[in-house]
Amino acid sequence: MRFAARVEVQLRPGIADPEGATIERALPALGFDGVAHMRAGRSFSFEVDAPDEGAARRKATELADRLLANPVIEQSRLELEAL
Amino acid sequence: MRFAARVEVQLRPGIADPEGATIERALPALGFDGVAHMRAGRSFSFEVDAPDEGAARRKATELADRLLANPVIEQSRLELEAL
Questions:
Q1: I need a labelling partner for B46 at 20 to 30 A (CA). Which of A16, A25, A27, A57 fits?
Q2: Any idea of the CA torsion for A11, B37, B34, A81, to the nearest 10 degrees?
Q3: Could you say which of A26, A43, A48 has the minimum Cβ distance to residue B35?
Q4: Do A46 and B35 touch (CB under 8 A)?
Q5: Nearest Cα to A82, choosing from A42, A44, A55?
Q6: Closest approach of chain A CAs to the CA of B51, in angstroms?
Q7: pLDDT of residue A40
């Protein structure tokens, strides 16, 4: 079976995020009020071949934690969908 | 009302993605087989104050298209959730 995976990698809460802070500071001057807690991160989408959803989830989670995120300062979130 | 917004920005299909291609090429040597169509992008999460969900969606969509993505080569996807 083939699954579509989507991994979102963001800095853990408490880790400074200069990119998000810079965007947030610029927003009022650009006409956007009422926006808070801006955090910037990375996202990855890919397709996984696996015999079932559990195996696909294990493979995608290991891939995310070993190669896409730095678990010391980042957390990843996985969404999986059968194709 | 306050809404949690999550914006995912990815290159449009057909636009070359060297980062995704490099990750995908490295995977077999790192023990990950059966992974294809790797695409790299960026993600942003933030909170929006707005009178209702429609207004929050309009504000977040405009913010994404004007400031977070380059609509010429990138597409953005918005998820909104009431807090």
A1: A57
A2: 70
A3: A48
A4: yes
A5: A55
A6: 11
A7: 96
Contacting residues of B for A40, CB less than 8 Å apart = 42-44
**Alpha-carbon torsion, ordered A59, A69, B46, B76, to 10 deg:** -60
Longest dimension (CA), chain A: 52
What pLDDT is recorded for position A52? 94
CA distance A15 to B71: 30
Distance CA B57, CA B5 (A): 9
pLDDT of residue B21: 95
What pLDDT is recorded for position B38?
96
Residue ranges in chain B whose pLDDT is less than 50:
none
pLDDT given for residue B29 in this prediction: 93
CB A57 within 8 A of CB A78: yes
Q: Which domains does chain A have, with CATH numbers?
A: 2-82 (3.30.1280.10)
In 3D space, the residue among B41, B17, B34, B53 whose CA is nearest the CA of residue A42 turns out to be: B41
The whole-number pLDDT of residue B8 equals: 96
Residue whose tokens read 């996985």:
A78
